[in-house]
Design brief:
This protein has 667 residues and is α/β, with parallel strands linked by helices. It has a domain at 540-666: GMP Synthetase, Chain A, domain 3. The protein contains 21 helices and 30 strands. The strands form eight sheets. An eight-stranded mixed sheet has the order 12-11-8-6-7-14-15-23, with helices on both faces. Helix 16 links the parallel strand 19 (403-407) and strand 20. The longest helix is centred in the N-terminal third of the chain and has 17 residues, at 127-143. The structure holds 5'-O-[(S)-butoxy(hydroxy)phosphoryl]adenosine (WT7).
């Protein structure tokens, strides 16, 4: 029997394995049985206004809303007329509730401090201290002229100050636009231009896998490509590290040290009462066409969505130490490192560096050190740990763990089982949470006290989420029939638009399938109604849980002087979920050499960021195109995946192209 075949049989056997909620969860979680889930779910769908209105009572409002939901498809407004502030909810409200001295953030830097077992520098920041820091930076931002409604770009390492910066923006009503620290200077330039942001908060650098990421230098480089930005606030992260002597360029009048800016600021900064529908942030993410788009999230609905899902899905209790390993530069970092946990008064752990620095035991050492009880990470990380071997895990005491989560891509049943047994000691429920940058909050997920889980499925929709599998016309599919995953009703944390490109919102999400939100994912529902996500059906690639558009990579490739045309497709990748395969035709007179391949890989990394580095470059004399001149990516995908083309090729203009590529493949 072939490996692929036995794998499929193994998967289908595991699909039938069901793990009931552990008894202590069924006793103490917010939702304690399938029956209770079903009742609440029904109520939330039948009367979303009543359901979400009740839920919103747990937040702090300066002024109560007039209407819970104003739904004029495809435009939703939530908590119309309500006024609140996200930073107030994450800080002041928690202090009022008696959590002033509780740790809001536990932070650990990447470098080892040299003391046996100490694992680097650790900071504990209480809710009161965090509020003081946020207020001082907020006042500093005001001094620099930042006003309500402005966009502030944040390009920082995973340091607690990144959270401070986001909360400071929220406090004064400026929208933040966080750019992941792994993105290149070109990506920064594109995003500050699109967001019309004239201030950037960054750091001299950050530590990653033992090296320094030159964040400030990347910003300097970006600012050669745009004259938009007037001020850069620079946190001293590297310069202050003992034994380091890290130099950065400095532009007098433009660059401001963070510590100098906040030095004389007051710790009092009243939270700006924001309209529930005011923009809290813009976050860029890749789509199937063009450059990354600025997904807009609002104040009221977003905060409620992440607040409630964090509480129900992760079953937060007062003494939990909660760790979501995502970088603040992604939506998971926004929703489930920062806003979800803090608005629930939980302690959130932030870690600066790589999971395998100095070796693969780092996460497990940290769980032991901080007594982490709730742990949320990505399948790609789990697979990397699996491969590294359980000896890294077994060195550490993980008994503090009580709940595990995954997000970002489909988790293969083998990795799910390993996570459960090796990390969770067989006792922790696993919540496989499906959602997107656009959804803002988790939409499909088990509830740990109520939902029996099966390895590989995100299970059932969260309250208020009307998810379905349909065909292109919107007709619902039967059990186990594959189709498109859509959401048929609005949810509080849904995106409100694409910054700077209002028409795109309708075109991108509400047009492919009439009248509903189309996620871009393919999926099926099993006989129990569980959702099995199959992955993207559009031109988005999911590399290690990070989203990239094929077109972005193609644009980066054709920007190289040797490249004439490029077509990029996602291919299965054992560790990363998906890898990147590029088919490239060269300019006249250029030779297809190994050296050029390497150069192009580095080039794409420079243009976008390391995470976009292609796994394969294939030179070809021509690309397969339809008679109307469209590149047939589907064929290339099959070729790159299976080494042959099985699908329909009747519209292909020149069969020779495929034949030649195949020859290369075999040769
Ligand atoms: C895409 C969204 C939202 C957090 C991080 C990714 C895939 C996400 C799962 C899951 C299967 C998943 C989907 C989705 N995805 N979570 N639990 N099971 N697939 O956010 O970058 O906006 O990507 O990630 O394909 O569409 P994102």
């Amino acid at each position: 029997m072939s490996d692929a075949h036995s794998g499929a049989i193994e998967s289908s056997l595991q699909e039938q394995r069901v793990f009931p909620p552990p008894p202590e969860f069924a006793r103490t979680a917010l939702v304690k049985s399938t029956e209770e889930y079903r009742q609440l779910y029904k109520r939330s769908i039948d009367d979303p206004g009543a359901f979400w209105g009740e839920m919103a009572g747990g937040l702090h409002w300066f002024k109560k809303w007039d209407t819970v939901l104003d739904w004029k498809p495809p435009y939703a407004k939530w908590f119309v007329g309500g006024k609140l502030n996200v930073s107030y909810n994450c800080l002041d409200l928690q202090i009022e509730r008696g959590r002033g001295d509780k740790a809001a953030i536990l932070w650990e830097g990447e470098p080892e401090s040299g003391m046996p077992g100490s694992g680097g520098s650790v900071h504990r920041i209480s809710f009161r201290q965090l509020k003081d820091q946020v207020c001082r930076l907020a006042n500093g931002l005001k001094e620099l002229g930042v006003k309500k409604g402005d966009r502030v770009t944040i390009y920082m390492p995973m340091v607690a100050e990144a959270a401070v910066a986001m909360l400071a923006c929220a406090r004064i009503g400026a929208a933040h636009s966080v750019i992941f620290g792994g993105f290149s200077s070109q990506a920064i330039a594109d995003r500050v231009e699109d967001a019309q942001s004239d201030i950037i908060i960054t750091a001299d650098g950050g530590f990653r896998r033992g090296s320094i990421v030159p964040l400030k230098a990347n910003v300097d480089e970006a600012l050669k490509k745009t004259d938009r930005v007037k001020k850069i606030i620079v946190l001293e992260r590297i310069g202050s590290a003992p034994g380091k002597d890290f130099k950065i360029d400095w532009v007098e009048g433009r660059d401001v040290w963070w510590h100098e800016l906040v030095r004389n600021q007051s710790t009092d900064c009243p939270a700006e009462p924001m309209d529930a529908e005011d923009t809290l942030f813009v976050l860029y993410t890749s789509g199937s066409t063009g450059k990354p788009k600025g997904i807009q999230h609002t104040t009221g609905g977003y905060l409620l969505g992440v607040n409630i899902t964090t509480r129900y899905v992760f079953d937060l209790k007062e003494d939990d130490v909660y760790w979501c390993t995502a970088d603040i530069g992604w939506i998971t970092g926004h929703s489930y490192v920062l806003y979800g946990p803090l608005s629930n008064g939980a302690t959130t752990l932030m870690y600066e560096g790589a999971p395998n620095f100095p070796d693969f035991s780092r996460f497990w050492a940290m769980i032991e050190r901080h007594r982490v009880s709730v742990f949320y990470t990505a399948p790609t990380a789990i697979r990397a740990f699996m491969r590294a071997g359980r000896e890294f895990v077994d060195r550490h005491d993980l008994r503090s763990l009580r709940l595990l989560g995954t997000v970002g891509e489909p988790i293969n049943p083998e990795a799910w089982m390993w996570y459960r047994e090796v990390i969770g000691g067989g006792r922790c429920p696993i919540v496989d949470t499906w959602w997107q940058t656009e959804t803002g909050m988790i939409l499909i997920t088990p509830l740990p006290g109520a939902t029996p889980t099966k390895p590989g499925t995100a299970t059932l929709p969260f309250f208020g989420v009307d998810a379905a599998i349909v065909d292109r016309t919107g007709k619902e599919m039967g059990p186990n029939q594959g189709g498109l995953l859509v959401i048929r009703k609005p949810w509080p944390a849904m995106l409100r638009g694409i910054f700077n490109d209002p028409d795109r919102y309708v075109k991108q999400y509400w047009t492919d399938v009439p009248g509903v939100y189309f996620t871009g994912d393919g999926a099926r529902r099993d006989a129990d109604g569980y959702f099995w996500i199959m992955g993207r059906v559009d031109d988005v690639i999911n590399v290690s849980g990070h989203r990239l558009g094929t077109m972005e990579i193609e644009s980066a490739l054709v920007a190289h002087e040797a490249v004439a045309e490029a077509a990029v497709v996602g291919i299965p990748h054992e560790m990363k979920g998906q890898g990147i395969a590029c088919f490239v035709t060269l300019e006249h007179g250029r030779k297809p050499t190994e050296a050029l391949k390497k150069e192009l890989i580095t080039w794409v990394g420079k243009q976008i960021g390391s995470l976009a580095k292609p796994d394969q470059i294939r030179f070809t004399e021509a690309l397969p195109k339809t008679r109307s001149g469209k590149i047939m990516r589907r064929l290339l995908k099959e070729l790159a995946t299976h080494g042959e083309v099985r699908g329909d090729t009747t519209t292909l203009e020149d069969f020779n192209v495929i034949a030649k590529l195949k020859e290369q493949d075999e040769g």
